Amino acid sequence: TQQPYGGETIFGKIIRRESPARILYEDQQCIAFHDIAPQAPVHFLVVPKKPIPSLSATEDADDMLLGHMMIIARRLARQQGLSQGYRIVINNGPQACQTVYHLHLHVVGGRQLKWPPC
Ligand code: 5GP
């Protein structure tokens, strides 16, 4: 079971290769892997290796890391063929239904997304 803050999470185990994942990309700062319960034809996560629990827990000095995660998300979205668009989501805290308290970007695409209406 996940601890709301400060605990070890499944993503730490994936980073250390103690738990399997379909890894798309890795560098010194972050790792990206396919979500185990995809909400669209393409759904992957970009996760910093630094175990920051949530966006709220980031510090101003994490600006380079947060920017890097966005750049990696953009590159991987292109590699995954999401030329018609995609969505990047960060669920932050219980009211946003965050379930894994290790910061991550969701990248979701490959179908028409229904919200907002367009
Ligand atoms: P959150 O709700 O915290 O924003 O999203 C956590 C995401 O992690 C969910 O989309 C969930 O499906 C995914 N997830 C949870 N456990 C695992 C796992 O063991 N492996 C992978 N690849 N994804 C996971």
From TrEMBL:
Residues 10-118 form the HIT domain. It holds the Pfam family HIT. A motif (Histidine triad motif) lies at residues 102-106. The active site is at residue 104. InterPro entries: Histidine_triad_CS (IPR019808), Histidine_triad_HIT (IPR001310), HIT-like (IPR011146), HIT-like_sf (IPR036265). One of its GO terms (molecular function) is catalytic activity. Signal peptide: none annotated. It comes from the Eukaryota. PANTHER family: HISTIDINE TRIAD HIT PROTEIN (PTHR23089). This is Adenosine 5'-monophosphoramidase HINT1. The lineage of its organism: Eukaryota, Metazoa, Ecdysozoa, Arthropoda, Hexapoda.
